[in-house]
């Protein structure tokens, strides 16, 4: 009888332990959701007035100021832009935490996607005297099915970083494709001749708010979230992102994505009537 009572006591202790674990799990989940909700709400609330500041600073800058005033208006604009970029990144990350990454897939032309995005970066590269090169391999298909907005976002992050952390030389983007099961593996790399990343930081740069060198990063600006977001996006697209780098010589980021073939039938030319 004593053994029976001891066993029963063990069982109730185990049950109590399991109940406590479950309660802790629910509390942790609720905490994470509350944190993500708070960040998302705050980011929204800050974004609206920030857009107002940017709009007004733009008007002010273009309103025929003298040289000194123009400098001040430019400084307001650039700080506001930096703050808005940070808010957008925080909003993006908190949304991904709360809801996972939501992809919005359509048929798209990968070549146009890369060419358009590179055009956006041209002025930035030219301002620093850098060559911005794009090499699209023959075998890249004309149509794929995927979220091209998110692919642009990854490319903007990587190529934007490459330009930011390079003082001389070039930024080279290469787009290639490889067969991947039922779909297509889209592989692209962004190679620069910039400052490089110390070996011990290579595995950390994809972590949130991680910056290889705090002093350098402060000088170049940035949020420390771009690579964390890019990695989440690449993984959501069945892919990965990796980096190799030589300190002082440059870095190379490579992204692999798994995309589906286009859904729509290719347009067929009407048969010629005899
Ligand atoms: P940030 O907004 O600071 O650029 P990221 O997440 O995009 O944030 O990058 C994290 C850090 O990784 C950067 O602060 C920088 O230290 C390093 N890094 C990223 N890309 C490069 C690059 N092309 N060359 C050198 N360092 C880089």
Automatic annotation (TrEMBL):
What lineage, starting at the top, does this entry show?
Bacteria, Pseudomonadati, Pseudomonadota, Alphaproteobacteria, Rhodobacterales
The residues covered by the Histidine kinase domain are: 41-261
Question: Among its keywords, does the record have Cell inner membrane?
Answer: no
Its name, as the record gives it, is histidine kinase
Q: Which UniProt keywords apply?
A: Coiled coil, Kinase, Membrane, Phosphoprotein, Transferase, Transmembrane, Transmembrane helix
Location of this fragment in the whole protein: 344 to 617 of 753
Natural source organism: Leisingera aquaemixtae
């Amino acid at each position: 009888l004593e053994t029976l009572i001891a066993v029963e006591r063990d069982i109730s202790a185990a049950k109590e332990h399991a109940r406590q674990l479950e309660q802790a799990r629910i509390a942790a989940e609720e905490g994470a959701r509350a944190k993500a909700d708070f960040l998302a709400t705050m980011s929204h609330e800050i974004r609206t007035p920030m857009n107002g500041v940017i709009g007004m600073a733009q008007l002010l800058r273009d309103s025929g100021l003298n040289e000194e005033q123009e400098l001040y208006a430019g400084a307001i604009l650039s700080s506001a832009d930096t703050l808005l970029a940070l808010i957008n990144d925080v909003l993006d990350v908190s949304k991904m935490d709360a809801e996972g990454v939501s992809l919005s897939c359509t048929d798209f032309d990968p070549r146009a996607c890369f060419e358009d995005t590179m055009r956006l970066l041209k002025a930035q590269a030219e301002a620093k005297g850098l060559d911005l090169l794009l090499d699209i391999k023959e075998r890249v298909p004309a149509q794929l099915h995927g979220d091209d907005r998110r692919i642009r976002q990854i490319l903007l992050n990587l190529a934007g970083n490459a330009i930011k952390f390079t003082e001389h030389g070039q930024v080279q983007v290469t787009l290639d494709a490889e067969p991947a099961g039922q779909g297509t593996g889209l592989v692209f790399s962004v190679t620069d001749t910039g400052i490089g990343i110390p070996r011990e930081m290579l595995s950390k740069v994809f972590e949130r708010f991680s910056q290889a060198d705090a002093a350098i990063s402060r000088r170049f600006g940035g949020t420390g979230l771009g690579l964390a977001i890019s990695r989440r996006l690449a993984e959501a697209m069945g892919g990965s992102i990796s980096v190799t780098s030589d300190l002082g010589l440059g870095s190379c980021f490579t992204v692999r994505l798994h995309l589906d073939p286009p859904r729509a039938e290719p347009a067929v030319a009407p048969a010629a009537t005899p």
